[in-house]
Here is the input.
Amino acid sequence: MAKKTTRKKVTKKKVTKKKGEPLYVGVVEPETLRKDILESVRELIQFLQSYEQFKKLKDEKNRTLAILKSDVKDIKSEVEKLKMYLKKSAASLPAPAPIKKSIPKEIEPQKDSFEEVRTSPVSRRSNELAALEQELGEIEKKLGTLG
Here is the structure.
């Protein structure tokens, strides 16, 4: 939005009108008046542009919703067809045999693998740390012999 400016009062001169003579009115500071009018016209144009964008978005939304509704309707009809085919095919199949549930045997955890899993992250870190320290020591020795 443009900055509002204060307007000075437009003064009109009293003129007696004679027949056939045009009537003129004096305008104080015509440049500022023109500027104010142009700013308001610019704001109006910006508002109209944003309104047109809003209308385009609304139309696009309505079109997209219409497409979505038609797609959902198609999907529902296809699902109904599928249900109908499944009912027909299920009627022609023999009844399934009952499933027996067996109780799984309790498995004893292996002590070795359990302890390895439990200590493995710590030992891996310490092994990696020791290897890195060893490499660092070798590099320092090489630098000592060069320097």
In short: The helical segments are 30-92, 111-146. Residues 30-92 form the longest helix (63 residues).
